[in-house]
Amino acid sequence: MAKLKTNYVCNSCGYQSAKPLGRCPNCQAWNSFEEEVPTASTSGKSGRGGLGGYGGVKGGKLTPLSGVGRREEPRTSSGIPELDRVLGGGLVAGGVTLIGGEPGIGKSTLLLQVADKVASRAAERGGGTVLYVAGEESLEQIRLRADRLGVTSDLQMTRDTRAEHIAALLEEHKPALCIVDSIQTVTVEGEGAPGGVAQVRDGTAMLTRAAKETGTATVLVGHVTKDGTVAGPKVMEHIVDTTVFLETVGAFRLLRSVKNRFGQAGELGVFEMRGEGLIAVDNPSAAFLAERPLDVPGSVVAATVDGQRPMLLEVQALASKTPYPNARRVVVGLDPRRVDVVLAVLERRLDLTLGGLDVYVNLAGGLKVPDPGLDLAVALAVYSAVVGRALPQNVAVFGEVGLAGEVRSTQMALRRAEEAGRAGYERLVVPPGLDGQAGVKSVEEAVKAVWR
């Protein structure tokens, strides 16, 4: 019998090595390698013979595309509009969602709120329930959180984290929603210690298969590594249908989708953590602009898009005489390279003297938005800070700036303009082509349009 080759796998990122390493070269985690022995396969023998040279093994049944029926995936509302937006319209029957985030950020809180709302709707319709698999907390701890959040539905809970038993519960009860908190606590018989690479991978695959067969919408909570990615083998993210991350930005919690087989990836939901749980922020533009100073040079309201969601954010700039031989350029929340390009355009095309000045550019609120449409706002904010003139209060801007000083169009320009109009900004400084707006063709024209 041939000796099986042993691999060593990093339990933080899934990196594989032929020998154990003290530190993972991929994620830099220490002492994270575990031994993984592949199972023997009788069908993979080196000797080829018989039918087709593959030991007499026959291929499976083929189905032509024309013979496959069309079916719309049924969705169930989570009861939280912001979450439905991120998921592309709601929870999909048989779909598996992986949610990641730092410890204590509110993943369990959000999912307990969702469980309550889904269970209430299921009880009204007279079918289905919600199964909550508690792998990290006792049932008494979950009851305390449920009392704090005002949960009134009678959820079905279990502390049994064996993947085979969870799959059997799905087959027996066919719940409308199953929440597994967390996937790192799920065990598969004969696959080593809980939380290992093989355990997480095979547990995810088994629960995904059970969700597809029973039509149960399933949500898996995943731990994250120190760099913010989901801990465990990368194949886990390929198995699930949707991957979302919950992150902290200032006083808000942002839920962002990075993969979605049933909707648009990159969607954004904004929440605020309160005593009664995570509360959706219906108007993020007003929330992010609530503390904006008025009549201050260097402050510009920019219409941007994060995913498919238009928002108004404040771009701030400050210019001061530098005490150092080389002037500093500090950028927070924006792409530093794009800001450098905008500063070069201002010096070359508008003869704005920036030599000897430290320039600080900040996207207020703590967000990080790699949107080229913020270029014009950066240009006007820096110009305003250098010349010491504040922009009028009713002006909002967006547009990409080219090396020739031209202002280029941006994606979703109409939705940006509509968001600015809803917020009460009457004057828009935008690229040409937008209905009802004259538009500016260059940064120089934009400066003249603002201070006309």
Automatic annotation (TrEMBL):
MF-aspect GO terms: ATP binding; ATP-dependent DNA damage sensor activity; damaged DNA binding; hydrolase activity; zinc ion binding
Taxonomic superkingdom: Bacteria
Motif position, RadA KNRFG motif: 259-263
Start and end residues of each stretch annotated as Disordered: 62-82
Region of interest (Lon-protease-like), ranges: 358-452
Keywords annotated in UniProt: ATP-binding, DNA damage, DNA repair, DNA-binding, Hydrolase, Metal-binding, Nucleotide-binding, Stress response, Zinc, Zinc-finger
Record-listed ATP binding positions: 101-108
Name of a matching Pfam family: ChlI
The keyword Membrane appears for this protein: no
UniProt-listed GO biological process terms: recombinational repair
RecA family profile domain sequence ranges: 72-224
Family annotation (InterPro entries): AAA+_ATPase (IPR003593), DNA_repair_RadA (IPR004504), P-loop_NTPase (IPR027417), RecA_ATP-bd (IPR020588), Ribosomal_Su5_D2-typ_SF (IPR020568), Ribsml_uS5_D2-typ_fold_subgr (IPR014721), Rubredoxin_2 (IPR041166)
Gene Ontology cellular-component annotations: cytosol
Function: Plays a role in repairing double-strand DNA breaks, probably involving stabilizing or processing branched DNA or blocked replication forks.
Family to which the UniProt record says this protein belongs: Belongs to the RecA family. RadA subfamily.
Domain note: The middle region has homology to RecA with ATPase motifs including the RadA KNRFG motif, while the C-terminus is homologous to Lon protease.
Protein known as: DNA repair protein RadA
